[in-house]
Amino acid sequence: MACNFRAAMSRHLILIASALSLALALPAARAEKADRLKPMVFTAEKQGRLDGVNQRTELQGNVIITKGTLLLKAEKVDVRETRDGYHQAFASGVAGQPVTFRQARDVPGESIDGVANQLEYDTRTETVRFIGNATVRRLRGTSVAEEVTGAVIVYDSRTEVFTLEGGSASPNPNGRTRIVMMPRVQPGDEAASAPAAPLPLKPSTTLQPGKPS
């Protein structure tokens, strides 16, 4: 009996170990943007500075950063690489020419578009921080689906969650935050979604009118 029990327990432990090995070998079941695997490319019109010792790059003059569908434009950008290979970009604009940011969403045909006086982008956390007179829109094609404005807006591209902060640098009166959500049904779509009109009644060709009794 004892031998049979130990054999059964041994087989049970082997099955558990095999299941754990299989689970660890399977890829993580989570959606990841293709942009994460794309290289980050920098271009600028004016002088730049590359500090290999401190892993820091400074660019000026119509700086453009691309990473897959991500597109960032600014007058000045300071990029720092962390020890584990991630990048932190600090971008700033000039009067009348703020920093702009655009990135496609996982939803086909949708993208995130934003402007601010300054911007911070972290490839580790995949967050974008819009600072000063910030406006961020979710576009469905070329139409605005949602718009948020405030002094500071933090966008987490992994969770697609916006965090808003008010303050004196907000474009809204009294430094308030503001959210605008457009209806999904646009003008002109009502006719397409409305139920069809009832067909007109026609006289019967088989029924005979009743006779008075």
What does this structure look like?
It is a single chain. The chain is built from two helices and twelve strands; from the N terminus they run H-E-E-E-E-E-E-E-E-E-E-E-E-H. It has a domain at 82-184: Lipopolysaccharide (LPS) transport protein A like domain (lipopolysaccharide transport protein A fold, Sandwich), CATH 2.60.450.10. By secondary structure, it is mostly beta strands. 19% of the residues are buried. The chain has helices spanning 2-25, 190-193, and strands at residues 41-43, 48-51, 56-67, 70-81, 87-92, 99-104, 110-116, 118-122, 127-140, 143-156, 161-165, 178-181.
List the helices and strands and how they pair.
Blueprint: H1 2-25, E1 41-43, E2 48-51, E3 56-67, E4 70-81, E5 87-92, E6 99-104, E7 110-116, E8 118-122, E9 127-140, E10 143-156, E11 161-165, E12 178-181, H2 190-193
Antiparallel strand pairs: 1-3, 2-3, 3-4, 4-5, 4-6, 5-8, 6-7, 7-9, 8-9, 9-10, 10-11, 10-12
Beta-strand percent range = 35-45%
The main pleated sheet reads as: 6 strands, antiparallel, barrel
CATH superfamily of the domain at 82-184: Lipopolysaccharide (LPS) transport protein A like domain
Low-confidence stretches: 5-32
**How many H/I helices?**
2
Query: What's the average pLDDT?
Result: 77
Return the CATH architecture of the domain at 82-184: Sandwich
Q: Biggest sheet: strands side by side, in what order?
A: 4-5-8-9-7-6
